[in-house]
Structure formats: structure tokens, C-alpha cells
Amino acid sequence: MKTRRRPYSDQRPTGHGGGVWSVPVPIPGNPLGYTLVYAVESPGGIVLIDAGWNHEDAWTALRDGLSAVGVRVSDLRGVVVTHYHPDHAGLAGRVREECGGWIAMHEADAALVRLYRELAGDSGRTLQVEMMRRAGAGADADAMVNAERPIPPAQPDIELRDGELIDLPGRALRTVWTPGHTPGHLCLHLEDADRLFTGDHVLPGITPHVGIYPYDRADTDPLTDFLGSLDRLATFTTTEALPAHEWTFKGVAARAADIRAHHEEKLDSLAALLTDLAPDAYSIWQIAEKMTWNRPWADLYPIQRGMAAGEAAAHLRTLETRGQALRHPGEPVRFSAP
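C-alpha cells predicted for Glyoxylase-like metal-dependent hydrolase (Beta-lactamase superfamily II) (338 residues):
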């Protein structure tokens, strides 16, 4: 399925019928290429679902793409952000400035936006480096000292909860809370057309990133949350999915089941790896290095290794809650077979 992904240069604004359009907005320097920003029409105005990365090229693509389907940014009612990541929330603040409307986001991600805005600049970078060192990153942590960090997204005006209707008069666009990729990730069900805007929760050809940050947290289990969120989509058997990346597709429930099976296989492989390494305990970074990724560990950039370690940490945490991994506190924290 991955071979069907087209480069950004091949993307065009698209009408999906029923007052729904998509506009591809580029993500500079990212292999995903672009975010699909959706515009949903109603008698009370048009609302965007996500907004794209905060970059001048992205802004031009969003503005011109909307114009191509007859929509002016200044006329928008607001933006619903599926989650706080910069390729989704980055331009929401600029859209709000242009249209005078609102930004809506789940309350859990809104709390993270407040935190990241407080930690903008050197303090946030220092915390990131320290987090990596506690996970055993070594030289990879040192490489992040001067790394560029995305501009924090704008604080939302509306904090959403599960099952709420979006302010879209004449239509029924309801939130479906699907934590895992982020604590406040939302899918949005357009009930009057049986369409599900899936954000990054369910994508047709790739699986979304699920990680723990800081890596050594023991008070959260995002992968278990994510698996439960996939199960929530079991009733969407005939619903059309409009994801934030790749392409639209049918069969949300089946795809969610496939993604769940992928993670269960990964958990089984990681449990087997810990058994093979027993009785020794290893840092999160050392374990991530021994896991299988889409490229050899040596070929990953430090930031990519950081994301891989976040995924390793999430899988280790789930194994820990299932009694299949044992945490050894310290700096760095280590894990072993129980």
C-alpha cells in the first residue's frame, strides 16, 4: 500500500462532495510530504480540520488551495485541530488572525500546548536533552543540544471533550476521542454524511507514531490507550475515512484492526527480545537499537532515533503493565524480562 503514496508535487485541492474539500499543505523537510487540511461547509460557514505546518510555503499552499475551491481564509468560521503536532496545529493561529474565528482542540492536548509555550526556547531544549540522557542516549543527546525546535502552536479558544458537537450549524460533526498518538487526539465524525476525519489515528498505508515523552515516565501508557482507541472504531464498518496523510479510504474498522495486530506483533517481538537478553537489563536506547525499524539504526538521524526510542519506551511500558517487562529505576532507567 505504501507505493500508492504520491509526492506533494502531485497533490491538488480536491472536492469530495457533500461540502467537503481537501487541500494538501507541505511539511518542509519531512518524508510525509504534506498534511491534508479539510474544509467542511455548513449553512453557518466553513470550518477547517487541521491547518498545516507554520511555514510561509505552507501558508501560501493553504491560502491558494482554499481559494482554488472557492474558499477565502478570511471567511472561515474556525479551525478544529485533531492534535497539537506542528504539521496539524502550526498554522491555526495565523488562520485565526485572518478570519477572527476560533481554534478548538481536545483539552488534553490544549494542556500540552500551554506547557510547550511555557518551555519555548532554551529551557525546552535543555529538558529534551536531559530526557534523552536519562534514557541512555549518550552522543545522540549531545547532538540535540543545538537542534531546531518547532514553534509552539497557538493556544486554542475552545477545549473539547469526547462526544461533543463542533460549532458547525446545520451539520453534525462530533468528536471521537482517540488518545495514543497524542493524549488528546481527536477523530471527527461527520454524522450527516457518515465520514470520519481520522487525523493521524488511522492512516491507510502507515502506522502513526506512539511514544512516551519523557521516555522514563511510569504514570502513563499511551500504547494501551492507542489500542483501546482503535477498538472504539470497530463500529465504523462502512464509514469513509479522510485521514490527514496519504489518501481517503473505506473500511476504517478493518484498517484499525490491522494496526492493532501490527502493534501486538511488535509487542511479542519485543518480549522475545527481552527474553533473549535475560538476565541482563538494558537502557531504552540500547533496546531501541536492537529493535527492527524501517531503516538500520546507524542510518537514522538523532531526531529519528529519538522517535524510535519513544516508540520503544511506549512498547516497553505496555509490556510492563502486562507483566512481561521489569523496570529497573536509575539513570538511565533499564528494562529486562521479568
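The mean pLDDT is 94.
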